[in-house]
Fold:
Amino acid sequence: MTSFGKDSAPGLGCTRRQWLQAGALGASFSLANFLRLQAEAGESDRGRSAILVFLGGGPSHQDTLDMKPGAPAEYRGQFRPIRTDTAGVEICEHLPRLAKRSSRYAVVRGITHNLAAHSLGTRYLMTGNRPTPVLEYPMYGSVASREFPAAKDLPSFVSIDRPVEGPGYLGPEYGPLSTGEKPRYGQPFRVRGITLGDGLTIESYRDRRRLLQDIDNAFDGYERLDDAVRGLDRFSEQAFNIISSPRARNAFDLSLEPDREIERFGRHDFGQGMLLTSRLIEAGVRFVTVLLEGWDTHQDNFGTLGRELLPRLDQSLSGLLDRLGETGRLDSTTVLVTGEFGRTPKVNANAGRDHWARAMCAMMAGAGVATGQVIGETDAKAEGPVDKGFSPDDLAASFFQAMGIDPNKEYEANVGRPITLVRDGAPIAGLLK
Structure:
């Protein structure tokens, strides 16, 4: 039997630790590394989950859920309001499906802040805490990942396409598993760290894993007390569990969906992303972030919204609410739909609307939400809230409370003192059950 030295792997010319760190498991190592960071989360048998639908760019509140048909023409714009199934509530004519499902969600109007820059506004609305240079707050999914970890063969937090914001003071172990791209109809969907590419099959992956076990045996006895190496072994094992788990792999496989579901959500990228979101929640993932971007309509606001964004949002969000209801997940899944700010009340010279943080709106649905109502109000021209309005902090506190997380909970941070989850906000009165 050939023996191997303490500092080398067989035929590889590097240490076992370096061999592992170089990614000898191919696609598995990035996932294993991700799982290593998530280890402290453990497991939970609580079935709570949540979804953030983020409308990146700043959707026009007065052209979507807070219309002002009585305002002067240069303020009210080109769209007409239509009635919803909730008495006295109207929304945009380009949201007819959502109008028929108004009993399944609540609209929050009169949200207000003063950060009209995309990066700062996004950070504010993705975390529920006003950005500060001395502390990075975690986005919603990172908190949910810590409080409601998924089973060992599933990621707790998935961000479809890209993560947008980070886990902040909670640490990278609570960051999302980002898919790296959007699912597209008719194309195989590759998930970074899960999909096996370059002709690699589960069986050949198992062969590589057997090779790793052989090398483990070669090194057994002298690195037995090396915690870092044992950790790599453990998380590589968990990565193997996810990659080879039918539940995890099937959750990301949209080809398993019948044509009627593809049609319900839409063949566009956002529709496929929302269909994937449904599958992930059904599989046991705790939090999913999905993006619909393009709302930064400084010009051609009405063409962009009317032709593309509003029909896609209407179809896919309605499909999500319907499917969550049909599968019994709507009672355990809280849904938040928001952007980073609203848009100027007055239409500009380019038929667009510019950044406007003094007024915006959001939608909440699902678990913990008192649906079929509108909370809050803006003035006659949608310039600002009537009375005090609500802050993004209040919206965040409501979101956390609805999903079963105390917004006043304190976490230890790297600044040497406990940090309150939502520092300045409180749940919005009447919004929650």
